[in-house]
Specification:
The structure holds two protein chains of two kinds. By secondary structure, chain A is mostly helical. Helix content of chain A is 77%, strand content 1%. The longest helix of chain A is centred in the middle third of the chain and has 36 residues, at 95-130. Chain B is α/β, with parallel strands linked by helices. The two termini of chain B are 27 Å apart. The chains are: A mainly alpha, B alpha/beta. At the A-B interface, helix 9 and helix 10 of A face helix 3 of B.
Chain lengths: 328, 309
């Protein structure tokens, strides 16, 4: 029975993932086909001047660019399915390798930001909700609203100016001290460079989880079961400890997993500002320099990433909520 | 043990804009409970029954003002004393399973009540198991979540939350609606047992039948006031003093099954005189002039100028 449920769940999820990736493929292909980027020119780059129109024609024919769009799409999809993701022109490496190396840098930043924003947001939300209406609550709300309405890159620049330029406590760019070989970078140096970008990302992510947790806690505190707990002599903090947290954590966790998409989007801007060589920075380069294979690879990868986040949230539900786990 | 006299509860509400409105939800309410006694509080919804329970536990909303006297074991029930006593000396048996945390096993919740009463975790757990055992709850009940309980099991768990306390006063707020008659009887018997063990029990209900099954005395509430306090046997012997109580008794299916016309006045426009005057068959001009006093008539209390000894 249990096995069957897991099997059905997995099949459903994989089927949906397949449909999602297909939709992403169609949109990407159509958009890129209609974009002013000429694939031959993008491939050859600066040597374009040395190529005659006949040679150009030959390349186009060899690549099947004269075929109708549907056929080209089929061709392209077939190649993708076989694992041929092409070569990134900016980095002169296979797309898979670029994404892997870039993401390994980004993922550390994303993980720190995700954890920090989750814990900080949960904490601030609980304090604000428990003390709803007081000046502490107002201050936390003001902070959350201000951050929710500030552009990411602006906050990043502001922090860069304060901590790196004025106070000089954090490095101004990159993932390692300039001029040092990757093999010689120590863990602490790495963490030092990681800190400010991760902090920026988490500060921004805090707002939604704070406001959401605050509202949910206020709802919980007005529930019948909290009234009963109070009647049993439970104090406010006792109520939050024993009843608040377990009822809060599910919506908070869902929100936090769903926020992976925002985090990923934020990373693009933050990495750009801090010149942190992660996947976000690669996205900007790929877009600015018409590196279509890399761009397509990143689009697919981000779809997969966000989908994984949402699936994890789905998996967390039955673990936390007995009503879903045990049925009823 | 518990004496409530002239209790009034007023809610301040904002009407339109900043205009404030006073809602007298309870006015001139009287009630007394002795140790070992089960007093039923009956009345229609909106007569202030549940608010009384909340007032005793000190869990009224912040916009409520309280006047009158509430004395518990010889000392006035101040908000500070309420806070100290609730859960330990005064316990609540709530209406439904909705008053339990949906994400916590019922065993943990009942154990927590024991811990709030000063027991360490181990003994609290033993006490919880013993109590569940006494109420014939299956062995796996402590690991169940509220949504997994049947109606009857839920009642027994809710009564257990009061039993694990050493509370001298147990307030059962509407413990029987929507239950199978067997479960109703079982729940009422559990409350009766609490009274026999020497505790005072207040049974809040709108079901007179249920109240008369187990109560020693019955207090009848109407529009936030006590209109009568009678012994349970007064109902059967026709020794009722207030026209509203008589009307309630007649409205039961096994009696005449006739309802009183009209509705309870809303707290926004209470009449200046007797609160029941607009529906009373015995009304006279005097009734409209002032609120009747609470009088001791034929071994019971009544708030009606026409009640004869």
């Amino acid at each position: 029975m249990q096995l069957r449920r897991i099997l059905v769940f997995t099949t459903q999820k994989l089927l949906r993932l397949g449909l999602l990736l297909l939709a992403v493929a169609i949109f990407t292909f159509v958009l890129l086909s209609l974009s002013p980027i000429d694939p031959v020119q993008a491939y050859i780059g600066a040597d374009m001047m040395q190529i005659s129109p006949e040679q150009r024609q030959l390349i186009a024919e060899r690549w099947g660019l004269d075929q109708p769009m549907l056929l080209r799409f089929g061709d392209w999809l077939g190649q993708l399915a076989q694992g041929n993701w092409g070569t990134s022109m900016v980095f002169n490496q296979p797309v898979g390798a670029v994404i892997a190396s870039r993401f390994s840098l980004s993922v550390q930043m994303l993980a720190i930001a995700w954890l920090l924003s989750g814990l900080l947001g949960l904490g601030l939300g609980i304090v604000a909700g428990a003390l709803a209406g007081t000046w502490i609550d107002r201050a936390i709300r003001l902070y959350a609203y201000t951050l929710a309405s500030s552009p990411t890159f602006w906050v990043a620049l502001l922090l860069l100016i304060v901590f790196s330029v004025s106070l000089k406590v954090t490095p101004i760019c990159c993932a390692a001290p300039p001029g040092q070989l990757a093999a010689d970078v120590t863990f602490w140096q790495h963490l030092h460079h990681l800190l400010l970008p991760a902090l920026t990302l988490s500060i921004i992510g805090v707002a939604s989880i704070t406001l959401h947790t605050r509202q949910k806690l206020i709802d919980v505190l007005h529930s019948d079961y909290v009234l009963f707990a109070r009647a049993q002599g439970e104090s406010l903090w006792g109520v939050i400890h024993h009843h608040g947290l377990r009822n809060l954590i599910l919506p908070a966790l869902t929100l936090q997993f769903a926020s992976l998409s925002e985090l990923f989007g934020g990373a693009v801007l933050v990495e750009q500002v801090f010149a942190y060589p992660g996947l976000g920075e690669a996205t900007v380069q790929a877009a600015l320099r018409s590196d279509i294979p890399l761009l397509v690879g990143i689009v697919f990868f981000s779809a997969l990433f966000v989908y994984t986040g949402n699936t994890l949230a789905d998996l967390a539900y039955p673990l936390i909520d007995p009503r879903i786990r045990l049925g009823g | 043990m518990l004496t409530i006299a002239n209790l009034s509860i007023t809610f301040t509400q904002y009407d339109q804009g900043l205009r404030r409105k006073q809602l007298a939800v309870i006015s001139d309410l009287d009630l007394s409970v002795q140790a070992g006694e089960l007093v039923a509080v009956v009345g229609a919804s909106g007569s202030g029954k549940s608010l009384l329970a909340h007032a005793l536990l000190g869990i009224l909303p912040a916009n409520a003002q309280l006047t009158g006297t509430m004395e518990f074991q010889g000392a006035p029930l101040t908000p500070e004393r309420c806070q100290a006593l609730r859960g330990s000396a005064i316990a609540l048996v709530p209406q439904s399973v909705g008053y339990l945390d949906p994400l916590m096993t019922v065993g943990r919740q009942v154990q927590r009540v024991g811990q709030l009463n000063g027991l360490p975790a181990g003994p609290a757990k033993t006490l919880m198991k013993r109590t569940f055992n006494r109420y014939d709850l299956p062995a796996q009940t402590p690991r169940r979540y509220p949504f997994q309980l049947s109606g009857g099991m839920a009642r027994r768990v809710l009564v257990s939350t009061a039993v694990v306390t050493q509370a001298d006063l147990v307030i059962a707020d509407e413990p029987t609606p929507g239950l199978h008659p067997d479960v109703v009887t079982e729940t009422l018997n559990h409350l009766r047992e609490l009274a026999q063990a020497g505790r005072g029990v207040i049974l809040i209900t709108h079901d007179i039948d249920a109240a008369l099954q187990v109560a020693d005395r019955v207090a009848v509430f109407y529009a936030g006031t006590t209109v009568e306090i009678a012994a349970a046997q007064d109902f059967g012997t026709g020794n009722l003093r207030h026209p509203y109580t008589q009307a309630l008794w007649r409205s039961l299916p096994q009696n005449e099954f006739v309802a009183v016309s009209g509705n309870q006045p809303s707290p926004e426009n209470l009449p200046p005189g007797c609160l029941f005057s607009d529906r009373c068959p015995q009304v006279t001009t005097e009734c409209h002039q002032a609120r009747p006093e609470f009088r001791f008539v034929r071994q019971g209390w009544v708030r009606c100028i026409h009640a004869e000894s």
